[in-house]
Every structure is written in structure tokens, then in C-alpha cells.
From TrEMBL:
Gene3D superfamilies: 2,3-Dihydroxybiphenyl 1,2-Dioxygenase, domain 1. Keywords: Lyase, Metal-binding. GO terms for molecular function: lyase activity; metal ion binding; methylmalonyl-CoA epimerase activity. Residues 7-129 form the VOC domain. The keyword Lyase applies. This is Lactoylglutathione lyase-related lyase. SUPFAM superfamilies: Glyoxalase/Bleomycin resistance protein/Dihydroxybiphenyl dioxygenase. It holds the Pfam family Glyoxalase.
């Protein structure tokens, strides 16, 4: 079996206030962020740094991000691994009893979410893309209809 994971792609941090969090990371580490946009179905806004830090801000009190912050506070929300074949790993995960809790697909980009209760308390993202950083794809392409599960 070949190597399935290429690298850790990005780290997702759930925050209440994007401006406050961006100021913090900018002042402390010199990190700058680009707004990726709002994900209406999942009810969050996303901001990404070139270093691979993504800030996730809930846009609704009933979103998974808001529930996470309410229950556990701000902090590590998910860890994304860049993989060569997200579907193949997702199938393997299901065979191991790991629940798939979501999927986002866009042209040239796929992300599959694994349940944190099945992954040592960390939501794992299987992120598949080719020649560009997967989370910044929204900045470079026209908005297309996403597919969700």
C-alpha cells in the first residue's frame, strides 16, 4: 500500500470573533489571513493564512461550530490531512467503524469529515486537491453549487 497522506494540510481553530483572533495571530506571529467566505449550509465563515491556520467563526447559534464553542470553548476544531484519495481513506475509515459526518466537493477539491468521537477527540478532515492549496480554492474560482452529505 502506498503512502496515503501527503502532509498535514491545515489546522482549524473555532473562534467567536474573527477580527480579534486575526489581530492576535498577526501581532504574535505576523500571520495574515484571507477571507475564504461563508459556508451557508454549515453556517460558518472561514479565514485562512498561507501558513495553514484556518479560523472558523459560526454564523448561526445552531451551527456545529457554535455548538463546539459552547461545549468546549474556542480552540482546535479540526486537523486536515492532504490525501491523494479521500474516498479511498473514507471507505477504510468506515470499515474501521469511523463515522463520516460531512463532505464538501467543489471542482478540483474534496473534503471529507470524520467524527471526532471516533478519532481521539479530533475532527479529521481528509482534504484532496491537486496543484493549489485546497482551502483557498474559493478565492480563485467562481462559486459553484456545492454537494453535501
Amino acid at each position: 500500500m502506498g503512502r496515503e497522506v501527503e502532509k498535514i494540510d491545515h489546522v482549524v481553530v473555532a473562534v467567536k470573533d474573527a477580527e480579534k483572533a486575526m489581530r492576535f495571530f498577526s501581532e504574535l506571529l505576523g500571520i495574515e489571513f484571507d477571507e475564504i467566505g461563508e459556508e451557508r449550509n454549515w453556517k460558518f465563515k472561514s479565514y485562512m493564512s498561507p501558513e495553514g491556520l484556518e479560523l472558523l467563526v459560526p454564523t448561526s447559534e445552531d451551527s456545529e461550530t457554535a455548538k463546539f464553542i459552547e461545549k468546549r470553548g474556542e480552540g482546535l476544531f479540526a486537523l486536515s490531512f492532504k490525501v491523494s484519495d479521500a474516498e479511498k481513506i473514507a471507505k477504510k475509515a468506515e470499515e474501521m467503524g469511523i463515522r463520516i459526518i460531512g463532505k464538501i466537493e467543489r471542482e478540483g477539491f474534496k473534503e471529507i469529515f470524520l467524527h471526532p468521537k471516533d478519532c481521539f477527540g479530533i475532527q479529521i478532515l481528509l482534504t484532496e486537491y491537486k496543484d493549489y492549496h485546497g482551502c483557498t480554492v474559493a478565492l480563485a474560482m467562481e462559486r459553484k453549487e456545492d454537494k453535501y452529505i
